[in-house]
Each structure stands twice: as C-alpha cells, then as structure tokens.
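User: Last request for today: this protein with NAP, please.
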Amino acid sequence: MASILVAGATGFVGRRLVPALAEAGHDVRAMTRNPDEYAGPARPVAGDVADAGSLADAMAGATVAYYLVHGLGSRDFETEDARAAQNFGAAAARAGVRQIVYLGGLGSDRDDLSPHLRSRREAERLLAAAGVPVTTLRAAIIVGHGGISWEMTRELVDALPVMIAPRWVNTRVQPIWIGDAVRYLVGVAEREEALGRTYEIGGADVLTYRRMMQVLGRILNRRPLPVFIAPVATPRASALWLSLITRVDPVTGRNLLESVSNEVIVTDDAITDLVPGPVLGYRQMVLAALRERLAALTGSADDGGEREQHGQ
Ligand SMILES: NC(=O)c1ccc[n+]([C@@H]2O[C@H](COP(=O)([O-])OP(=O)(O)OC[C@H]3O[C@@H](n4cnc5c(N)ncnc54)[C@H](OP(=O)(O)O)[C@@H]3O)[C@@H](O)[C@H]2O)c1
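Assistant: Here's the final one, the structure of the complex with NAP:
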C-alpha cells in the first residue's frame, strides 16, 4: 500500500482515479485549491501548483504523487504550466516522493506539435528536473462523461445537421475510454520498471476525426454526420464558432483545436505488457459515455462520479 497524493483530484480524470486507487488499497489524499468543497472519497488537502509554498504540507509523507493538472483555459498556459510542473517536481523531491505519475498528451516529437501538446511534453521534462523519477502516460482524447474534448465533440455532433470542417478532420486519433486510462494510471503505481518511463496509451481503434464524428452521428442522430472540408478555416475562427455551438469557452476551445492537426496515435504498446487487459473500441466507449450521461441526468448510480462533482 502506498501513500498517494493526487493533484487534480477534482478533475475529470482525478474524480475517477481517486476511488480506483483507494479500491486498490492505497492511502489517498486529494489535492485541490478548494479543499472545503471536496466531496469525494479521499482526504482533501490544500495545494496550488502556482504557489510553491503551498505544496510542502500536501506532499508530506507521500511516496507516489499523481500530476493531473493543466491550465488549458488560460491564454498564457505555456508559462503557467511550465512553472506549475517545476514547482510540483521540486516539492516532490523535497518531500522524498519516490515516483511522480503524469498524464500527458500523445503526438510525435518529430511533428510540429501544437502549443498545447508542446507544453504537455515540456511538463514531462520539468516534473523530472528535480530528480524524482516520472512515469508518463501519454493519451489522445479520453472519452467519458465530463471530459472536455469528448463533451466538445458530442455537443458539436449533437447540434449540427452537417459539418463544414477544416482539413484537420482527416488527422488520425486514437481515443481511449476513461476506465481504461484509469486502469493504466493505477497499474503503474509503485512499479519499479515504470520509473522514468514513458508509455503511450490508447483504445482499440485508430480513426480520423471525420470518422469519429460520423460514428457518433450515427449513434446520436441515427445517421452519420455529413462532413465537408473548408480549406480556409483558421483556428481562431473555428474556436469562436465552436464556442457558439458548444459550452466550451473560446480560449480552451482554441487551445484544444490547435492540436487537431497533430496525429495522436500509439506507436509503442509497451504498456500492455506492464498492465495487461482489453481496452474498449470507439463505439463501445461512446455508448458507455452516453450511458454515464444519462445516469448523471437521471441521478442514478452509473454516472462516472459526475453527481459528486456537481455537489461541490
Ligand atoms: N481530458 C482529456 O481528454 C485528456 C486527454 C489527454 C491528457 N489529459 C491530461 O490529463 C490531465 C487531467 O485532465 P482532466 O481532463 O482531468 O482536467 P480537468 O478536468 O480540467 O481538471 C483539472 C484539475 O486541475 C486542478 N488544477 C487546476 N489548476 C490548479 C492549480 N493551480 N493548482 C492545483 N490544482 C489545479 C483542478 O483542481 P481544483 O480546481 O480543485 O484546484 C482540477 O482538478 C491533464 O494533465 C491533461 O492534460 C486529459
């Protein structure tokens, strides 16, 4: 049993990870900037990654620290995320943490990565800079009720009779079900062979964004969404348009949209030796996420932890 700190415990991934770690027998602390509002199953601790001084108490006694924090909603997220990762890595080293587990983004370093993906990659380096071994899991879109990229896609397909999209709709992506991502995150804790290693994680299907929207359209609206290419749509125009159709704010929308020209697929499946087990395909994960949404709307149990979040 490890003593585990989860930074980002109140987020989409953290809300599912915390109970899974507790179920695996670990002693879990949930780090948040608002511990008084925390309603999850772990012990809440205050901590703000932008404030290095606030991390010492949160980190004290932890042997493993999960880092599930990002500043996508900020215009200057690159500077803020870099400082935050540096603060977290340094505090972990001072507290004697033996392993940091970080969930970052897929995408090839040989590609011209978007600022968002570049920043996620930089965080890997900065978290490790003070000497604590980092285990990085890199993922593309994580599908599950409440996930920002998933909800953005769902709202878009739900709202539109046809889609006029930029060329990026032909980029390939390998989405992963939130339950599978959490299983991998839990599975690397305290594993000697995972220290200092980077793993790519993905679901069973590689598909283009166009195909993703068509599959979703068939499930939501009983017909595939017709997608037409408009070659001259800028990220700024697309983000503004996106914020009109979905609930995503324009800054987050733009930061996410800039990544869609980068292919995000698994090229090395070493994680499947370390944490074996089947993963869901896209259609299965869409159906599971929609079931969770229905459960959250009707207040039944299978809601992926969303009611808990709404109560915060
Ligand atoms: N969602 C996806 O599809 C996806 C895909 C690939 C990778 N990832 C990665 O997975 C990680 C988690 O993503 P998510 O979707 O779960 O994010 P999220 O729902 O937006 O949650 C973000 C979390 O960060 C915490 N946070 C933000 N600023 C903070 C600060 N200054 N100090 C301390 N905590 C702070 C928030 O906690 P409080 O507000 O309670 O403090 C919240 O719990 C990120 O690193 C992301 O890049 C996500």
